[in-house]
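Our consortium's second objective concerns turning raw sequence data into structural hypotheses that experimental partners can test. To show how far this objective has progressed, the report includes one record in full. It was chosen at random from the queue rather than selected for favorable results. The single chain below, 129 residues long, was entered without modification.
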Amino acid sequence: MGLSWTFFWKFFKFCIVGGSGMIVDFGATYVCKEWLKINKFVANSIGFILAATSNYFLNRIWTFQSTSPEIGTQYFTFILISIVGLGINNAVIYLLNNKLKWNFYLSKLIAIGVVTFWNFFMNYFFNFR
């Protein structure tokens, strides 16, 4: 059983939505970390959650074209998946930035790439089926 064109098209759309979320994420993280001097992990979490919220609505409408009336349940599931993704995100940043001394924003970019796969597969197979 191979993966269908629809699967890849949805992943592509998910990545486009993720790009818009990355702008929200990086913007909010930068403002919180650099301007407001909030702890980098708290700032990262704020950016991540704001991006996850905007991504939910864009993915629901455009990527997965969900018409489920269970918006609250679906959003809650999306956020739970995203929170696990946030844990993965922060772990990657901790490893790359704190332990390996890589640049914070490069570490964050790599973390986003890793978490993209987690978020897509969990939402594709469990949330927006």
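The partners drew two points from this record. The mean pLDDT is 93. Helices lie at 5-35, 40-63, 71-99, 104-127. Both points have been shared with the crystallography group to help prioritize constructs.
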